[in-house]
Amino acid sequence: MPLLEVRDLRTYYFTVAGVVKAVDGVSFTLERGEVLGLAGESGSGKSTIGFSLINLVPPPGRIVGGSIILDGVDITKMSESELRSKVRWKKVSMVFQGAMNALTPVYTIGYQIAEPLMYHLGMTKREALERAAELLEMVGLHRTMLNRYPHQLSGGQKQRVMIAMALALEPPLVIADEPTTALDVVVQAQILNLMKRLRREKNMSIIMISHDLSVIAEIADRVGVMYAGKLVELGTAEQVFNNPQHPYTRLLLKSIPKLRGPVDKLEYIPGTPPDLRNPPPGCRFHPRCPWRMDVCSREEPPLVEVEDGHYVACWLHAKR
Ligand SMILES: Nc1ncnc2c1ncn2[C@@H]1O[C@H](COP(=O)(O)OP(=O)(O)O)[C@@H](O)[C@H]1O
Ligand SMILES: [Mg+2]
Question: Closest by alpha carbon to 209, among 190, 227, 197, 223?
Answer without folding.
Answer: 223
